[in-house]
Amino acid sequence: MTRGGYRWTLAVVAVGAFMITMDNTVVTGALPTIMRELRLSDAARDWVATGYILAFACLLVAGGRLADVLGCRATFVAGMAVFTAASAACGFATGAGPLILARVVQGAGAALALPATQVMITVGRDDRRRTVGTIVWVGAASVATAAGPTVGGLIVQHWDWGWIFLINLVPGVLVILLGLIVLTGREGKSGARVDLPGLLVSAVTLFSLTFALEHGGRHGFGDRAALGALVAAAAGTACFAWVEHRAADPMIDPRHLRDRVFAGGLASQLLYGAGFNGMIFYSAVFLQRYLGFSPPRAGLVLLPPAIAVMLLTPVAFRLADRFGPRPAIGGGLAVMACGMVWFSTIRQGDGYTDLMPGVLVVGVGAAMGMPLMVYVLKAVPEERAGVASGVVNLVREASGAFGIAILGLLVQHVPAPGASAAELERFRDGTASGLLLAAVLVLVGGLISGLTLPRRRASEF
Predict the structure, then answer these.
(1) pLDDT for position 458
(2) What is the pTM of this model?
(3) Distance from C-alpha of 188 to C-alpha of 1, rounded to nearest angstrom
(4) Counting CB atoms within 10 angstroms of each CB, which of 172, 178, 218, 268 has the fewest?
């Protein structure tokens, strides 16, 4: 798979995963400035924030299948080239239309490149290298997720907002060149074909589902656009099942979905991600509106869990290898649920010392769940690793929108600055209920992991 050393491959994986993941969140801290300078409407603002996510989510499975068929070098380099060029277009955009279009194209390039990064660290690797590669991938993604809003906020504070995208140009060019040097020309599945009908139907279906979750979370699921998208997603799912059943070389082999480890791992990932992302989204708002924290100070509260994930992920892999994934991952998600319950007890006047125990326990539990991805991918034949990676990342991405939408049913109203004490207490009660719901989702995900993952250690699997 590689012509250069494994360390160079890890460098490609780390930089690619970092850039792609950070652009998921870097725009968050910069949106107010972008709105003001480009005079964006609320609808345009939403599309700037979600255009990347929508394109990214709906094309992840297609990107994974292309990695299987065409090989990592072609898909990764092409995806990063599109991503980097679109970043330049975002940075130089002078209006809402060009910026939204560039964000959509940027997300498409990211969807093409990201599954290839996971194929690089799993296919043809022994357990030690697969573990090291996954730790690097998770570490890069975790740092990027935590750093994105902060980096965006700092850039717009000192420079033009376009630099939140233009900072991608130099590392983007370098990682493209490194990919051309390090990766082999073609290592895809010999004789495999791209299932074009399946690719198109899956893209439309996933776009509809992601749009419904994003739009419904913002405007309510009774909104006509959200309802129409849900109907389109349901029809697309049925159509995709029919197309794949008739395809000679389907994108997703239905037999994989009957595999206990693969299906159970995806269900666990969905619930785990929904609970965690829902908590992060509403906690950031809660810390600012209820406790009166500034945005940077609220970001600092949520930084320790990301650091805990980075530091403890290697420990989590060791525990999963030594004791088996069922107790290690399932128990870790139970710990994470306990941290969410602890965090839900926040009261007016609480400071960092009151907040840290709960958020740190959440970080420890989240780290314990990181090996889950490895076992899901190992349940699928290596020639299908790319599409499996796309499915895993799709579930990770969709879980965020799902969690925000589900918890939003309880956190129905975010009070404006200067709200009354009674309104703030209602907000606190709704947020606490949302955190408890998040804990239940994560706990159920842990139970599913404890029942479906292999009993054996990674070295025996």
Answers:
(1) 47
(2) 0.70
(3) 10
(4) 218
Domain at 142, CATH number: 1.20.1250.20
The CA-based angle 25-198-24, given to 5 degrees, is 5
pLDDT at 124: 65
Integer angstrom CA distances of residue 212 from 207, 208, 365, 395, 401: 8, 6, 30, 15, 9
Q: Which of 54, 31, 27, 150 is nearest to 110 (CA)?
A: 54
Q: What domain range includes position 62?
A: 1-194
283 shares a domain with 393: yes
Q: What tokens appear for 48 in the block?
A: 């700037």
pLDDT digit string (tens) for 257-312? 677 888 888 888 888 888 887 777 677 677 777 777 766 676 677 777 777 877 88
**267 CB burial (10 A radius; 0-12, 13-18, 19+):** middle
- Same domain, residue pair 358 and 393: yes
Q: Tokens 């994003």 correspond to what residue? A: 214
Question: Residue 461's pLDDT is what?
Answer: 45
Distance between CA atoms of residues 436 and 76, nearest Å: 40
> What is the number of domains present in the chain?
3
Closest CA to 144 of 309, 314, 315: 309
Looking at residue 286, its amino acid is: F
With a CB cutoff of 8 Å and minimum separation 6, the contacts of 52 are 23, 24, 27, 103, 104, 106, 107, 110
Under DSSP, is residue 6 helix (H, G, I), strand (E, B) or coil?
helix
pLDDT digits (tens, 9 = 90+) for 130-169: 777 777 777 777 777 666 666 766 776 778 888 888 888 9
Taking the CA atoms of residue 81, residue 273, residue 304 and residue 137 in that order, the dihedral angle to the nearest 10 degrees is -40
Last residue of a domain, one of 205, 224, 248: 248
pLDDT of 85 higher than 90: yes
**Chain-wide mean pLDDT for the chain?**
76
